[in-house]
Amino acid sequence: MALLLCLVGVTAALAQGCLHCHSKFSEKFSFYRHHVNLKSWWVGDIPVSGALLTDWSDDTMKELHLAIPAEITREKLDQVATAVYQRMDQLYQGKMYFPEYFPNELRNIFREQVHLIQNAIIESRLDCQRRCGIFQYETISCNNCTDSHVTCFGYNCESSEQWESAVQGLLNYINNWHKQDVSMSLVSPAFRCLEPPHLANLTLEDAAECLKQH
Asked: In whole angstroms, what is the distance from residue 154 CA to residue 124 CA?
């Protein structure tokens, strides 16, 4: 039976969001909110667009729908942020838009951002699992923007000796965990797509469907 071990070290909650954790988020979204009244010919678009921007972080967490912790690496967060800011800056370079166009474009960018974050989190987890044995990588918690780390157990061992060493490493890790009294969560073995031999041919799209909660 496959076992996916996930250890996440975080501190007290500070804020919510994924993109919210990026260093330029406050500056960028402050600009977007303060200039929203210049982007539509129809006054009704202004409060709608303002609400979308104000609730961006909380709505992101609601829409992620992941069955694994929302932990993203700094590198991938930078990639997501760059893509989102580029789309937003292009939208704001235009003059005033026809009614409903501006808030609809904000929704499109928001949905694209959610998809990018989902893929980034899942891709890092799959890369981790494709190793042999215990592996850890540094992340940022999307729940509270604090430094965190994810530890997983990979099945990609090329020999029985490597597998025995990997299992022994897992046992040692669990023993150390009990000694340190660190919080641990286990992803259910019901995720068959993450079990060998499926892992070798697993695509990011297949994994996304497996890990998303429906």
From this structure: 12
The DSSP secondary-structure symbol of 19 reads: G
Segment 54-100, tens digit of pLDDT = 999 999 999 998 888 899 999 999 999 999 999 999 999 988 888 89
Give yes or no for a cis peptide into 189 (omega within 30° of 0).
no
Nearest to 143 by CA among 25, 28, 57: 57
Residue partners of 154: CB distance under 8 A and separation at least 6: 128, 129, 130, 131, 132, 133, 134, 135, 166
Number of H helices, E strands in the chain: 7, 5
Instruction: Please tell me whether the overall predicted TM-score, pTM, comes out greater than 0.90 for this model.
Output: no
Which phi and psi angles does 5 have, rounded to 5°?
Answer: -95, 125
pLDDT at position 147 over 70:
yes
Structure letter (DSSP) for residue 21: G
Q: In what order do the strands lie in the sheet with 132-141?
A: 71-72, 132-141, 147-155, 4-8, 185-187
pLDDT digits (tens, 9 = 90+) for 33-44: 999 988 887 888
- The DSSP element (H or E) to which 116 belongs, if any, is helix 101-129
Q: In the predicted model, is pLDDT for residue 192 greater than 70?
A: no
**Cβ-contact 67, 187 below 8 angstroms:** yes
